[in-house]
Amino acid sequence: MRFDVLTLFPEMFPGYLGQSLLRRAIDAGLVQVRLHNIRDWAVGPHAAVDDRPFGGGPGMVLKAEPVVEAVEAVQSAQQTPGHLVMLTPQGRRLDQPGVEVLAEKSHLIMLCGRYEGFDERVRKILEPDEISVGDYVLNGGEVGAMVLIDTCVRLVPGVLGDVESSQNDSFSGSNRHRIECSQYTRPRSYRGLEVPEILLSGNHEEIARWRAQESLDRTRRKRADLIEREDEINKNFG
Ligand SMILES: C[S@@+](CC[C@H](N)C(=O)[O-])C[C@H]1O[C@@H](n2cnc3c(N)ncnc32)[C@H](O)[C@@H]1O
User: Which of the listed residues 153, 172, 189 is the one where a domain comes to its end?
Assistant: First the structure.
C-alpha cells in the first residue's frame, strides 16, 4: 500500500515512520510512504502558502494554488491518481469500518491542513474524501495522517505477524460491535491479583466461551453504545 502525504511539516514524520511495526512494513516493501512539502508548489516573491481570510477574521487560510497544484503533481506522477483524503475536523469521523474500506485501496494521498484550514476552492476543485479523526480540533492534519497510516497498515496483508490478532481486536472481525476481552500474561499472581483459572486450564473451547462472555460483559460496562448500534455497525461493515 502506498501513502503520499502532502504537508507543510514533512519533518514531523520520520521519527514515527522509523519505529516498530511501520518500519518493518516499510523495510519489507509492504508499505511505501512518500512525503511532499506543499511549500515546494508555492509561487510569488514570498512563496506564500497562506494568506489572510477574505471578509476579515483571525488567522491565516491555506491558499488554493499551491495545494491544488501539489496534489495534481503527485497524482499525475503515478499511473493511477490514487484516493485523495483531506484531513479535516469537518469530514466524516473515522472508525474501524471506515479504516477497512480505506485499507483496501492501494494508494492514498493525504492532504494535511494547518492554520485556519483550506481555501474552500481546494474542496471544490479536488473533491477529496474528507476525513476527521474525531470531534476535536488538532493544530494540523499530520497527526491525523499518522492515525490513518497506522490504522490502515495493520490491515495490509503480511504486516501483522499473526493475521488472527487484528481479527480479535476491539471493533474488528467477530468483535465488530464489541471491545476485546481482558488479557493476562505472566506472572500468574501480582499484588494479590490472580489470572482467571479458566485461562490456565488448557481447555480451548471453554477459554473461547469465557472470552466471548467477558468481551460482551466488558462492552456492556464500558461501551454499551456499541451493542445498541449493532445493526448500524453491521451495515457499515457491509
Ligand atoms: C486548526 S485546524 C483548522 C480547523 C478549521 N478552522 C475548522 O474549524 O474546521 C488546522 C488543520 O488541522 C487538521 N485537523 C484539525 N482537526 C482535525 C480532525 N479532528 N481530524 C482531521 N484533521 C484535523 C486539518 O487538516 C485542518 O485543516
Answer: 153
pLDDT along the chain (238 residues), means of 10: 98 96 96 98 93 97 98 95 97 96 97 98 98 98 98 95 83 92 97 98 98 96 94 74
Domain count, the chain: 2
List CB contacts of 1: < 8 A, sequence separation 6 or more.
Answer: 30, 31, 32, 103, 105, 106, 107, 108, 152, 153, 156
Q: Is 138 in the pocket of ligand 1 (CB under 6 A)?
A: yes
Please answer whether residues 213 and 227 qualify as being in contact, where contact means their C-beta atoms are separated by less than 8 angstroms. no
CATH at residue 168:
1.10.1270.20
Range of the domain at 211: 163-237
Same domain, 184 and 140: no
First to last CA, the chain: 22
Where among 101, 127, 153 does a domain terminate? 153
Q: How many residues does the chain have?
A: 238
Q: Are 34 and 7 in contact (CB under 8 A)?
A: no
Whole-number Å distance, alpha carbon 60 to ligand 1 midpoint, is 13
Is ligand 1 within 6 A of the CB of residue 116?
A: yes
pTM for this predicted structure: 0.95
What are the start-end ranges of the H helices in 28-141? 64-76, 96-103, 120-126
* 29 φ, ψ (degrees, to nearest 5): 80, 15
Contact 127, 180 (CB under 8 A): no
Q: Is 7 in the pocket of ligand 1 (CB under 6 A)?
A: no
Q: Are 188 and 195 in contact (CB under 8 A)?
A: yes
